[in-house]
Amino acid sequence: MLLGSVLLALLCISQPFDLQTQLVFVMVLWVLAMAVRRMPGRFASLLMIMLSLLVSCRYLWWRYSSTLNWDDPLSLFFGLLLLAAETYAWLVLVLGYFQSLWPLHRQPTPLTVPPAEWPVIDIMVPTYNEPLSVVKPTIYAALGIDWPRDKLNIYLLDDGDRPSFRAFAEEAGVNYIARPTHEHAKAGNLNHALKQARGEFVAIFDCDHVPTRTFLQLTMGWFFKDKKLAMLQTPHHFFSPDPFERNLGRFGHTPNEGSLFYGLLQDGNDMWDATFFCGSCAVIRRSALDEVGGIAVETVTEDAHTSLRLHRLGYTSAYIRIPQAAGLATESLSAHIGQRIRWARGMVQIFRLDNPLLGKGLKLTQRLCYANAMLHFLSGIPRLIFLTAPLAFLLLHAYIIYAPALAIALYMLPHMIHANLTNSRIQGKYRYSFWSEVYESVLAWYIARPTTVALFNPHKGTFNVTAKGGLVEQSHVDWEISRPYLILVLLNFCGLIAGGWRLAYGDGAEIPTVILSLGWVLFNMLILGGAIAVAVEARQVRQSHRVDIALPAAVKRRDGHLFPCTVRDYSDGGVGIELRQDDILREGEPITLLLRQGQRECAFPATVRRRFGTGTGLQLGALSREQHIAFIQCTFARADTWARWQEEFARDKPMASLTDVLALGWSGFQSLLDYLPSPLARLFVGMSRLLAWLGSFIPRTPRTDTLLPGSERALVQS
């Protein structure tokens, strides 16, 4: 049965069809996909994956067998470039389907042994150049984690060796470690601390990741159940917007860039026992870590490399998709890109130095999951090829796909549509359709070079620390970051001009291909407009970011009257509350905010700063160390603070998402016009008017030469 299905699929993929038969074939598959798409359950998703793979494999077969012009070196060169990029995209698509075929969605398991037998755990918080205001909440939250005090050691690992941090650690009652040398960055910092710590398990948090009190209660049960479990990872959740969310105004409306990985792909990895360590919000078994020689230092992504080594020794890993910590996202696009460059370089370094497809110790499924994670970061050059490919035909008259325009549409569009529909079905709550185009276009230029260098020289490159807790004083265009996007826009703009000229005065037989190429260019232009929109840095002057919540509380006036209220948002410096009446408090009035931590009631001094109906904004007063610890543990470290993370977004609607992305691209060009210096803005407007005036000379009469016998050869070439 299986062999027969495979043979039938191979026949459908490789059988040559005329255009009419191909049309019928793709229409039948499209109707099937639309019917299956509305069916509930995992089986329907598997059917959609099968249909998508059938169409995509047939497209790639057609591309290799029928669309290269071997008689024209220029066309062959650009055709092979595009085909290589498409092959890469197809490979990532197939591996992505495999990775998310059956997500595990592991649940916590209870601790089955009495507290007296619970292990000693070392909590390590590495820091280098982050301000103390970022580190304090993490340490204060760690102090409140539910675990026996005599079995919990908290270490502040200060690679900046700052006296203020040493004094803070002493005041907070946690261990302080600074090392004399600073080799291997974060990995070296952790390895130095491991020599002095003696716990049976190590929990690691980036210095801005504030853990909830239940972190160890939810994670440690699996280590008792599975004695070979070496590492358990939880999501990286962020309570501040990343540059995409802030600059585009999409915070809370569109899943962020990391939602797909932590919401779906890590669950998929967990199914295949391929969950990898992400550097923070994880617990590692100390004996297993010692067996692999500590945290890996050979690459700049020490976390994934360490988990790969653990898997090679036969240890298992796990992932629980329940946020148990939250931190700060990168504040600026340049910092965000710098972080992604490090990730991309490091994953390619691992691919070269410790290739998961080679060597001993890994199962085939683990090899495929690791390979997909690493190949993902090689997307820079393929994305740049897709953003410029139609220009080879419009500007250089090179036939990158050597086939009639109708054939291109009948093979390429079904491949793209099925892939989009299937991914929308699988990823709908974690990544909206077409947003990957924007994310990858923003990063493509910047990761292309370091990943290529790492392929040839994996030892080249340095570690960079991602800045957190910064401010953006004024809205502005980051001209340095956006320069590649502007160059690509200019190139595609030239393609539009060339396409317009060829529509008016070119070979009539090529008009369908010119129209198809112009559509591709326009789409690329709007995606690049989205990249420019991301580069318009929105003003960010709030040092402490607000977190939305619904939390019962009370306020106490100086006259002793108590009034119940609901906390609607909070930050490290203030709280927004909602009262039942709008005339209870006055602006400037000092009050006391009452919050509960379990059975304990905590009081915090505050001042009323603004009123808006029943809503009231409070500024916290000067808190003692004990009060600050209590406030963090009553808010950021609550067990249910991030519980609704998975319920924030509706499912993806592909057409609505496409409309949003195209509108975003248009708004990017409008923003560019707003921020251009006045002379350039006038020049931009003048060029637009000039193009419109030139366009008025294009003949409006229908052409009659497109089907003449003499044009048949050009039609085949186009």
Task: Please give a structural write-up.
The protein folds into three domains: 2-99 and 378-537, no CATH class; 115-329, Alpha-Beta Complex (Spore Coat Polysaccharide Biosynthesis Protein SpsA, Chain A); 547-645, Beta Barrel (Thrombin, subunit H), CATH 2.40.10.220. Residues 470-474 and 701-718 have low confidence and may be disordered. The chain has a seven-stranded mixed sheet, sandwiched between helices. It has a six-stranded antiparallel β-barrel with strand order 13-14-15-18-17-16. It is built from 24 helices and 18 strands. The chain is an alpha/beta fold and 718 residues long. The longest helix has 27 residues, at 73-99. A hairpin with a 3-residue loop joins strand 14 and strand 15 (574-579).
Helix/strand/pairing class, anyone? alpha/beta
Estimate the helix proportion, in percent.
Answer: 40-55%
Count of DSSP E strands?
A: 18
Strand proportion = 5-15%
The major beta sheet can be summarized as:
7 strands, mixed
| Shape call | globular
Mean pLDDT: 87
Q: Largest sheet, order of strands side by side?
A: 3-2-1-4-8-6-9
User: Which stretches are poorly predicted, pLDDT < 50 over at least 5 residues?
Assistant: 470-474, 701-718
